[in-house]
Structures are given as C-alpha cells and as structure tokens.
C-alpha cells in the first residue's frame, strides 16, 4: 500500500523542501521506491535541492495538459535509482491546477511507488489545497519560533478538517544551546501547543546550506558527523517503523543534547 | 545569385529595409510576399500597378530567389506553394523559372491563381492547377488580413528574463539582457541572447532542427532545439565567449561564434537542402 504524505508548514522558510529532499533520499537509500512531488507550483525549488534542475524537461502541468505522459515527466535520480521527482512548473500556467488534478495525477503515480512525498508551498491558499488534496498523512515542519508555531497550528486545523491523519511534527533548526539558555522555545514547548505526535527534531546545521547550494541532499553522502543528517535518517526510520517513534526520539534527542552539553561545558 | 553581397541587391522588403540607409533608387515599390497559411506557402507577386516601370522580370526573380534563400532554414521540405499572380502576365518560361527557384529550396509549386487568361493557359499547359480569379481592382491593394507570415516578425526584448518567466514566440527572439536560471524562451525560429543564457532556451519549437541558439555567455540549464535536449557540462569552461548551439545527428553541439563559418553542420545550415550532407 502506497503511503502518500504531504510535507507542509504554513510559514515559509522553515525547511519543508529540505525535509522532503532528505527524507526522500533516505527512504530511497533504505530500498523503498519513492516519488517526490513538487507541489510548490510557481516557486518550485525541490529540483534545485536535489540537483536535478537541468534534467527537467516536462512538468506536472504538461502531464495535466496531455502534452506528455506521466512517466516522461518523472526525473530519475541517477545517484539513487529508487528516487524520482515529479517537477512543478514555474510559469503562469501553474494557476490552472486544481485539487482534482492533483488527485488524479497522484492516483496515477501511486501504484508504482512505496512512498509519495508531496512538498507543499507556504501559505494556506490554492497551492496548499492542491498539495494536500491527495495526501493521506502529513508531516508538519516547524521551527521553534512563535510565528512558525502559530502557522503550523492553523495548518494542523485545516488538515484535521480535511481528514488527513496522522499529522506528525518535525521541529526543524533547533539550537539546543539557545534552548538551554531559555532563549528559544524547546521541543516540549512546541509539542505542548501543537499537540500532535512528534516524529523528529532536526538541529541547526550549517552543512544543510552547503548541501542545498550543491544540489546534494545532506543524507546523500554518509555524513557521520552531521547531526542533521542523522536526524533526517531517524525520521525516515520512524516513518517506516511506526511502533516506537516516540521512544526513538527521546533517545535521539538525548544524544544530541548530551553531546552538545559536553561541547559547551568543555 | 550573389549571396555574398546582399547589401547591394535590390531588397525591397519594406519591413526590414532601413529607411535611412535605403536610397530611393534602391527602393522601388516591388514587393514579393511569402506567407504561410495552414502549412501552404503563398507566394504573392506584386500586381502590375505596384510594379514600377523600371523593374524588370529579372529584378523580380532575383528578389524571389533571395527571399527564398534568406529564409532557407524555415521552409518545411516539400511544402506546397500556391502562386498568387494577380494580374501579372507570366509566360511558360517565367513560370518555369519560378518553379526552379522554389525547387532549389525543396518547395513544390502546385497551384497558380491568376486573373489573366494568358497566364492561366501557360500555367495549365505546364501542368499546374489553375484558379482563375476575376479581374481585381488594381487600386485596392491585395488584402493579406487572413494570412499569417511564415514566421512572425522577430521580437526584440530589452529585459532580464527572470525565474518563472517564459517568453513564447512564433518567430525569432532577440533578448538584450540576461536569461536567469528558471527563465525559459520558446521560439519557432532562432534565439539570440545578447547577454548571459543561464535558463532554458528552446529554438525551433516545436520541430525545426535548423534553428540556432546564440548567446554571449552560454551557461544554460538546458538547451533545446526542435525535439532535442542538451544539458550544459558539469564543469563550466574557464572563460566564456560568444557561442552558437546547433543540431547535428549526434545531438546538440556548441561552437564558438567566431568559428561559425568553419564548423561542420553549422556552416551547412546556410546551404540549400539539396547541397546539405545527410
């Protein structure tokens, strides 16, 4: 049974696309067949993060217009054969897409894959409605900031109204040191407000920026030193082994924090 | 035909002749029109009234040959031509000359439309289909309202083509400025970028492999000509210079602009189809 998961946040710039690229890459590395769908029509950049921009010929809009077949639009990742990208268009034709289009397209796509991950645009307008139209589950990405949490809260409400469940939480770009110093919301603070299951915490990591600019997701190479890469991998594993995600997390989070504490007490 | 000195030939295309450079002697009111209508090329001769007394049949034929050769990359091979002769008197020899000029660029003369009985007889004798029109009013210029040109007039844009913009045009496109990553240009003809090409350029859209992409600095996301796609090399060259992209049987290739005249395939694009290597 294919799992169709939308990655959304409400607020922009919190890391939806980075999460999508890294989760997709990890799931493909684990041997799953994964399709990443760029739902950010008009301002696409999932192709950039994956380093596939120059291989995009057709996009979802051409598929919907009948100008090409669905499989012609899929861009296969040569580094990770289990991974394909369905690119979004970025010109004005993006406005013609409706939730029914997305349902049809993802319905066509789903049987060939184990996971379909849909990268949602920021906001709660048409693009968001399109992105969630075909989804069965959701991953909510937020950063520990009141504005991001407020928007995530609104989005969770909309997802509940659309019967998309479970919706699980990823707290991204956490700076444990700032949390220690009570200068940043803690994961507990965020969880308390949003009251959905936590599936992972990703610490701030400068290597995310370099990997984005190079078009190589952080998890592509084995990056044993990158805590963010490890966090993405853990989220992917929890996504598959659903029995004990919360337990995994507490261990994981403990690891990060204790390691960091050591650094700071030196 | 002397193709090496086009500036001295009596080119009478009003749309392209620079009024400052043209002297009255070089600009007689003699105008051949070539239009594309549903895949049929209409060759429209000037009426007798539009033809100045000084203009000879040879001027007309020379102009026809030049117009055909100048657009050589944009003719569909074996496209059918309808000759609209109006009230112009054409004898068998002249019809044959027109047919020869068309054959040189792989076009086929099929139908002759005329209002002159003698022309109709000559055309029918030579084996063309003939449509005889009633005499036209020589004072009313022939209407071309329902005719679309072979390629639309080129568009000239002085702008930066930014991410998310797409420029689509049924003709040649000239951009005075950069094309940023995420910007796209689709042209039925050539694309000339006086600036940096870093987005996607699709020349000869959808299916004319004779078209070219030219840029001062060629570092595209993708180049497309007709139905071919090419990506830029992973490592950009140490130094950029003006380049031209063109199609070969092996795919899209890029040549330095200064090497245009000596590059195989690129050089041959200027030749008539009969002289091109396969």
Draw up the topology in text.
The complex is a heterodimer of chains A (266) and B (278).
Chain A: E1 3-8, H1 16-29, E2 34-38, H2 46-49, H3 60-64, H4 70-73, E3 75-76, E4 83-86, H5 99-109, E5 115-119, H6 126-133, E6 137-142, H7 146-161, E7 167-174, H8 176-180, H9 187-194, E8 198-203, H10 206-214, H11 227-240, H12 245-265
Parallel strand pairs in A: 1-5, 1-6, 2-4, 2-5, 6-7, 7-8
Antiparallel strand pairs in A: 3-4
Helix pairs in contact in A: 1-11, 5-6, 11-12
Chain B: E1 33-37, E2 40-44, H1 57-70, E3 80-86, H2 92-104, E4 108-114, H3 117-125, E5 129-132, E6 148-149, E7 152-158, E8 166-169, E9 171-176, E10 184-187, E11 191-197, E12 200-203, E13 213-218, E14 222-225, E15 228-231, E16 243-248, E17 251-256
Parallel strand pairs in B: 2-3, 3-4, 4-5, 7-9, 8-10, 9-11, 10-12, 11-13, 12-14
Antiparallel strand pairs in B: 1-2, 1-6, 13-16, 14-15, 16-17
Helix pairs in contact in B: 1-2
Summarize the structure.
Chain A is an alpha/beta fold. Helix content of chain A is 45%, strand content 16%. Chain A has a single domain (3-265), classed as P-loop containing nucleotide triphosphate hydrolases (Rossmann fold), CATH 3.40.50.
Structure description:
The complex is a heterodimer of chains A (266) and B (278). By secondary structure, chain A is of the alpha/beta class. Chain A has helices spanning 16-29, 46-49, 60-64, 70-73, 99-109, 126-133, 146-161, 176-180, 187-194, 206-214, 227-240, 245-265, and strands at 3-8, 34-38, 75-76, 83-86, 115-119, 137-142, 167-174, 198-203. In chain A, strand 6 (137-142), helix 7 and strand 7 (167-174) form a beta-alpha-beta unit. The model of chain A is unreliable at 244-253 (pLDDT under 50). With 278 residues, chain B is an alpha/beta fold. The radius of gyration of chain B is 21 Å and the shape is elongated. In chain B, a hairpin with a 2-residue loop joins strand 16 (243-248) and strand 17 (251-256). In chain B, the strands form 3 sheets. A 6-stranded mixed sheet of chain B has the order 5-4-3-2-1-6. A 6-stranded mixed sheet of chain B has the order 7-9-11-13-16-17, with no helix packed on it. The two termini of chain B are 24 Å apart. The interface between A and B is small, with 10 and 13 residues.
């Amino acid at each position: 049974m294919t799992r169709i998961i939308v990655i959304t946040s409400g607020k922009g710039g919190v890391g939806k696309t980075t999460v999508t690229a890294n989760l997709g890459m990890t799931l493909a590395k684990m041997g799953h067949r994964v399709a990443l769908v760029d739902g950010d029509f008009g301002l696409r950049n999932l192709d950039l993060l994956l380093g596939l921009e120059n291989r995009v010929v057709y996009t979802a809009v051409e598929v919907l217009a009948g100008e090409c077949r669905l499989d012609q639009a899929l861009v296969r990742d040569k580094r990770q054969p289990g991974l394909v990208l369905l690119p979004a268009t970025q010109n004005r034709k993006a406005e013609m897409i409706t939730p029914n289009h997305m349902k049809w397209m993802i319905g066509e796509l789903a049987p060939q894959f184990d996971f379909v991950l849909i990268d949602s645009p920021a906001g709660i307008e048409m693009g968001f409605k399109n992105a969630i139209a075909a989804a069965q589950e959701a991953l909510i990405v937020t950063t520990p900031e009141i504005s991001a949490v407020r928007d995530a809260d609104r989005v969770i409400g909309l997802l509940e109204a659309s019967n998309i469940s479970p919706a699980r939480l990823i707290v991204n770009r956490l700076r444990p040191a700032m949390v220690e110093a009570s200068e940043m919301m803690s994961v507990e603070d965020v969880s308390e407000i949003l009251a959905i299951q936590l599936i992972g915490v990703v610490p701030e990591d400068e290597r995310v920026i370099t990997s984005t600019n190079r078009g190589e997701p952080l998890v592509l190479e084995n990056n044993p030193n990158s805590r963010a890469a490890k966090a993405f991998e853990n989220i992917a594993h929890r996504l598959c082994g659903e029995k004990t995600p919360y337990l995994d997390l507490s261990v994981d989070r403990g690891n990060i924090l204790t390691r960091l504490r050591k650094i700071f007490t030196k | 035909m002397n193709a090496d000195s086009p500036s001295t030939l009596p080119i009478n295309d009003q749309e392209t002749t620079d009024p400052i450079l043209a002297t009255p002697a070089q600009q007689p009111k003699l105008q051949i029109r070539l239009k594309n209508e549903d895949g049929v090329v209409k060759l429209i001769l000037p009426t007798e009234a539009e033809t100045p007394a000084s203009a000879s049949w040879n001027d007309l034929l020379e102009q026809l040959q030049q117009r055909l050769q100048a657009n050589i990359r944009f003719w569909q091979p074996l496209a059918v031509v309808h000759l609209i002769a109006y009230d112009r008197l054409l004898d068998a020899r002249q019809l044959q000359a027109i047919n020869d000029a068309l054959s040189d660029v792989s076009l086929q003369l099929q139908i002759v439309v005329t209002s002159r009985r003698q022309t109709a007889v000559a055309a029918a004798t030579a084996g063309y289909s003939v449509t005889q029109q009633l005499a036209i009013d020589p004072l009313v210029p022939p209407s071309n309202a329902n005719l679309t040109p072979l390629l639309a007039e080129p568009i000239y844009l002085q702008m930066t083509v930014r991410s998310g913009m797409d420029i689509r045009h049924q003709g040649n496109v000239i951009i005075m400025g950069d094309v940023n990553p995420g910007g796209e240009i689709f042209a039925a003809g050539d694309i000339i970028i006086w600036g940096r090409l870093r987005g996607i350029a699709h020349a000869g859209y959808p299916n004319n492999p004779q078209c070219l992409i030219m840029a001062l600095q060629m570092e595209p996301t993708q180049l497309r000509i007709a139905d071919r796609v090419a990506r830029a090399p992973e490592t950009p060259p140490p130094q950029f210079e003006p380049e031209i992209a063109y199609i070969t049987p092996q795919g899209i290739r890029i040549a330095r602009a200064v090497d245009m005249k000596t590059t195989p395939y690129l050089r041959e694009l200027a030749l008539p189809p009969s002289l091109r290597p396969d």
